[in-house]
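User: Hi! I'm working on a homework problem where we have to compare a predicted structure to a textbook description. Could you give me the structure for the chain below?
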Amino acid sequence: MVYQEMEEEKTTEICDVGMMDFQTPEIICEYMISLLGDGVYKNILEPTPGEGNLVRAIKKKFPESEVIEPMDFYKEILTTYDAILMNPPFSPPKQAYSILDYCMSKSNRIIALMPHVTIINSSKRTKRIFDFGVISIIHLPRKIFQGSRVQTCILNMKKGYHGTTIYMNY
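Assistant: Happy to help. Predicted structure tokens:
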């Protein structure tokens, strides 16, 4: 990807509470969705839709799929899904980990934009993620989210996958 394109994307806004709010840039939404391939997905969950960037990209790529975007993730997730695409809130980090853990019980296919420390800061969490199945880990440059000090990555996960995990830079 060309860094200039990424820098031109709108990547941050200030929330009412004064915290930084990092929405998924369109170019990253498209990349995440490309990791699903051309499969048929009856339903796709975006558990924390924010301003809806991922939701819009999902609907564009998979117009026949039902896209679920709950207002309250913890109250509305009651079933299983063909796929989950997400960029959960990173603050506090425990919340992002909790959402990923819960989603691992709701789908066999997950594409998650997460803090890089998700896979290096806890051997127990790393084992749980790799036991689920990780096809690839894509490290994103810091320039993706202007103003953020958090290094991010995309986890391309498939339940039961135990082949070689590909590590790559975006």
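For your comparison, note the following. Confidence is low (pLDDT under 50) at residues 1-19. The domain at 3-169 is CATH 3.40.50.150 (Rossmann fold). Good luck with the assignment!
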